[in-house]
Amino acid sequence: MNQTVWMVTFEAVPVVKVGGLAEVPTNLAVELAARGWDAVVIVPAHGELRERSAESIATLNVPGARLEVGKLEWRGVKFFIVSGGALRDAGVYAEEVLEAKVVQFAAAVGELLKNPELLGVREPSVVHFHDWHSVPALLALRRALEGGGEPALFFHIHLLVRRRLSEELLSKAGIPPDWEHEVAWGGSKRRVSVREALQLSGGAAEKLGALEAHRVVTVSHAYLSEELAPFMGSELSGKARVVYNGTSWRYSDLQKEVFEVHGRQLEVFGAAQLPNRMLLRKYFLLYALGSLPEGEPKVPDERTARKLREAAAPPLREDLRTEAFSYDGPLVITTGRVSRQKGFDLLLEAVPHVVQDLGITRFVFFILPVWGSEDLSLQLLDLSREYPDNVRVVFGQAPSVYRLAHLAADVFAAPSRREPFGIMALEAMVSGVPVVASRVGGLAETVLDIREHGYAGTGFLVSPGDPYELAEKIRDLAAFMEASATGRLDMLVEKIEDRKLRELLEEYPDSGEIIRKSCIERVETHFTWQASARMAEAVYFEALRSLGKPLSTAST
């Protein structure tokens, strides 16, 4: 293999993570490197280089800023991290600096593509841009390589936000409105100025990215047909391809990791070796949840953390750690960034209905509050105060118990209004946790509805935006899993309205365990990052062939 791929992204683990986007470029790069590619990730520091454990290797002068480039190698991938100017600001998506960050990052990418020797790497054969923040960088690259051989350019839409780009913003990144270049539109090539490209795209960043790239990539067929194709129009949708996301989680690895971290404390709960899930749940709810180590949970945005600390009241402490529960019970967890898109407000409405019907249910929210989400965060805090026996909210990152919570859980709630893919559902299923998810985007492709698939099912799909159906299916599935695990069918079956779940329990009282195994098998068979990398590689090679570029044989 002599192909080189550059990933251009606004966030990437292990450098900086806000949401699921950060997992994709890194994991694709890691698995492509394992297949023989030279893999590079270019990402802003959103802080100082020393905070990212990066070695400074170069400086760049771009309009309005002097930038510094650091290098970090991790799992076979070279990360080049850009700091300085607005890119020092820790607010990854803070609106007051976002435009400056996008501009300076775009200018930096253009300079690096003109001078790859600064990085000590080869020119890329493929450059893969992720989400709207990278669109100005895509144009800056094309401008920088004008007159030279372009690599194959891919624009990956993880979440369509319809952000507007202006001539002024692109000009600040060194992309003049009258610069003419070639684009593919409606199956044919045409020369357009940047001004004309903005007019063709209506100024929408994602449509401009689709116009400028050789291929558009998105994360599920449902998301492509439901949202992207209507948005892009027939002139551009022919460029679109699908590459599923994946997860690096494996059930056996999760068990080992959890026991390595919590083994000593678990012995207090009667476990000399890896315990069963009921014991893990009891340990998590009654002890570990209320005993987070110092520094957890971590809220990346200090302004948001300050506001939460000011509002803290039991069961939330002033240091944002939460109290443990007093009693065990079927556990429902949910995870994600606080936003209306994720549907946490719907779950907030659903919780009282579940508690009314199945009062032993415990809910734990693992949420990442971001600036601008304070109202919803405070509503969730109020919910935990109103239902202290049933609800806890972990505000921020709590790595010491995050995987433990997944192994302890009985149900995962994914009430998203929109979800292009939904890695959180994969993490739940590979942990053996069935999912109640909205029938939208990638969730509709990853979650198999038990009503249709029986024992091969991995959860329920519900109507998006309906808190009552959400509550009903969470209650049914929580009661089903508890009845199966405890054998208390006489007390719990009457709580289950879903006919299919009742039938499964009648046929096999331990059918909850069968569903857990189906969840694990589905992810480990179909949704690994290795599978995602194979899909990406196939799309790369297809584009390289169409552009007349040389190919190399992939590893198997």
TrEMBL record:
One of its GO terms (molecular function) is glycosyltransferase activity. The keyword Glycosyltransferase applies. Residues 5-238 form the Starch synthase catalytic domain. Residues 326-477 form the Glycosyl transferase family domain. Keywords: Glycosyltransferase, Transferase. InterPro entries: Glyco_trans_1 (IPR001296), Starch_synth_cat_dom (IPR013534). This is Glycosyltransferase. It comes from Thermofilum pendens.
